[in-house]
């Protein structure tokens, strides 16, 4: 086994979970493979549920982990429901945006020099191991650059995240660096930002599938939000994201296969919600798109909506005689992972609970 794999999957700790103070936001010093030197902050509530869920909350450009911590209600909600929150901090000193453009960050365990996504994923692995956290209930939510990172993480690591919420983002791969500069991080793709990159649903689907070649497994569910007057990441990106993710999730078929429920003035006046589900499964919305009429790029971080979508408010079944939403269960494509290259390693329970990961054509069991 290569040293790269050992670093990624069996981290040696310099700060144990027991040493992390509750009710504050300490910086975690964990000996994990973190190739771009992302700063790792972790919020642990005073009352942590057994096998707690994890929420990752990447910040916006010119923002910081502390800005999200102080400016959102995720810490308060974590105290209420007992989940952990990872607040990563971008290493990009120029504008503090996330790397959503390099080939490495857009790839599942890249063979080239890794980008920001791998460092964040390894923070998740560390947290799962140290807190006996529920590997089936890992979620991500962000605004602007954080929304872009949300869609990148869902596309590149569908085996890690169960769901995501993106407030004012762009489609996966839309910000990709030019063909002659695929390794460049921090690239600002102005054509994408201005909504000039358009593709067919099949083409957008191929971009996502190219991040993890051969993967035919379960896909996370997703919410996207966008203001019609967004003057930073223009509104056509909302329409392109719909094309991409409905294709990826198998929800871009005709009325015999896909149901789209439109609700006006939801969750606010002049906002319109479009909920996509497979016919006959209207109670199982797998993709939601919210169009905010008259709203610019400052769409906000609507934490309560994300928490409800993720079912982070579901504790021990919530007394309703059902399990909380988790990775691998349900969805328009079903919860079967048959046909993937990983074979037995991708059987749902074995994969999620025992942390089997495929890297560089190796299947590695991190219990070793």
UniProtKB/TrEMBL annotation:
UniProt-listed Pfam families: Esterase_PHB
Keywords linked to the UniProt accession: Carbohydrate metabolism, Hydrolase, Polysaccharide degradation, Secreted, Serine esterase, Signal
Biological process terms in GO annotation: xylan catabolic process
Main location group: secreted
Localization of this protein: Secreted
Enzyme category, top tier: hydrolase
Tagged with keyword Signal: yes
Membrane-spanning intervals of the chain: none
A GO CC term attached to the entry: extracellular region
GO molecular function, one term: carboxylic ester hydrolase activity
Cleaved signal peptide residues: 1-19
Assigned EC number: 3.1.1.-
Chain's role: Esterase involved in the hydrolysis of xylan, a major structural heterogeneous polysaccharide found in plant biomass representing the second most abundant polysaccharide in the biosphere, after cellulose.
Family of this protein: Belongs to the carbohydrate esterase 1 (CE1) family.
NCBIfam families: esterase_phb (TIGR01840)
Protein known as: Carboxylic ester hydrolase
Originating organism: Podospora australis
